[in-house]
Amino acid sequence: MTPFFLKSACKDYLWGGNRLRNYGKISTQERIAESWELSCHPDGESVISSGEFEGMTLSAFLKEYPEAAGIYSEKFDRFPVLIKLIDAKENLSIQVHPDNAYAMRHENDWGKTELWYIIEAEPNAEIIYGVKHAVTKEELRSAVEQHHLPELLNHVPVKAGDVFFIPAGTVHAIGKGILLAEIQQTSNLTYRLYDYDRGRELHIEKALSVAKLTPSENPPLENPVIREGYTAQYLKRCPFFTVQKITASESSVGYYDSFRHLLILEGNAFMEIDGKEIPIHRGDSIFIPAGVFCPIQGKCTALKTFMSRMEKPADKLQRVRQRMIL
After folding, report:
1. Which residues contact 316 (CB under 8 A, 6 or more apart)?
2. Are the beta carbons of 45 and 57 closer than 8 angstroms?
3. What is the pLDDT of residue 227?
4. CA gap 143, 138 in Å, rounded
């Protein structure tokens, strides 16, 4: 079994732009608002685009070879991670996602916790990240009904390289002029609170039931690990995914106990697959099965997503360090 490239499912939404075509995304639709880079979700599945399994959906491949996802995915009833590129030419709706408990009880589905990595941001671009100050559900409802919800919310200026962790329940929105990568639980549940009078359905009662009514704090990033051949920085470790930003040259990517997904942000490099040098470019989406290692030559910057064991510090001190080569 060898690493392979994935073809993304592209989505045309009314707020989207066309910058994703600069990242190699192809679509006959007017806009490419989103490209689903790693997805087993039925609303937009990734398709293997290289190697012996070319043409298979990722979900079909993992059904036949579940060991390729790794042992930490076994506790989930579906492939746990969905990764997107999102190009916001206009503001997205102000929205919130339920957690697993609420989603299972009311939607028979998973909730959605996510992470954003800002790739591009126009001057004065901003996101909405939680409420400004503690509010009551009644105050939030009144703001929605009186069309001044944005005034209650925390508007955060952003620039390329910024990272935001958005747990389920956080009221949020991507502002216009932003292109970002989103790493999330495998879910397509969104409750809209406000949509700038664009005529789309709102989900006010459900949103109010799950919205966090106190300000959210974005956790600080861990310090980068610098070794010969690569630099790696953890952007987030949570029960649903682990994400690193890596800058690598003359290194190898792989892990025994989990798949690795690489989303290439910049690159002038190649990967060695079956003894062949395969070029990698900005926007490439690469799946590395668990237990497989893939040498990289030349410099590239990527987001690396995988599953890891979530444990207490004391547990970490007691276990034997697993072999991992970045």
Report:
1. none
2. yes
3. 81
4. 9
Is pTM beyond 0.85 here? yes
Question: Model confidence at 166, in pLDDT bands (50, 70, 90)?
Answer: very high
- Statement to judge: residues 241 and 152 lie in one domain: no
CB 39 within 8 A of CB 82: yes
- CATH code: domain of residue 229: 2.60.120.10
Burial letters 75-97, b for 16+ CB under 10 A, else e = ebeebbbbbbbbbbbbbbbbbbb
Together in a domain, 236 and 204:
no
> How much is the pLDDT for 256?
67
Q: Which residues contact 228 (CB under 8 A, 6 or more apart)?
A: none
Q: Are residues 231 and 203 in the same domain?
A: no
Length of the chain counted residue by residue: 326
Q: CA neighbours within 13 Å on the CB side: how many for 308?
A: 23
Does residue 246 sit in the same domain as residue 309?
Answer: yes
The reply to whether 260 and 307 lie within a common domain is yes
Query: How far from 59 is each of 68, 71, 87, 226, CA to CA, in Å?
Result: 11, 17, 25, 35
Span 30-57, mean pLDDT?
97
Give the catalytic positions in this structure: 192
Which tokens is 53 given? 């399994």
Q: Is 80 exceeded by the pLDDT of residue 228?
A: no
- Cα 109 to chain centroid distance, Å, stands at 18
Examine the domain organization and report whether 198 and 92 are in the same domain: yes
Question: Can you give the pLDDT at residue 25?
Answer: 97
Other CB atoms within a 10 A radius of the CB of residue 218 amount to: 15
Instruction: Quickly list H helices, 158-264.
Output: 204-210
Is 203 found in the same domain as 98? yes
- Residue found by looking up tokens 């009514």 in the block: 213
The closest of 14, 303, 273 to 180, measured between CA atoms, is 303
Give the C-alpha distances (Å, rounded to integers) separating 97 from 104, 166, 298: 12, 10, 39
Cβ-in-10-Å burial (0-12, 13-18, 19+) of 132 comes to exposed
Q: Specify the number of domains making up the chain.
A: 2
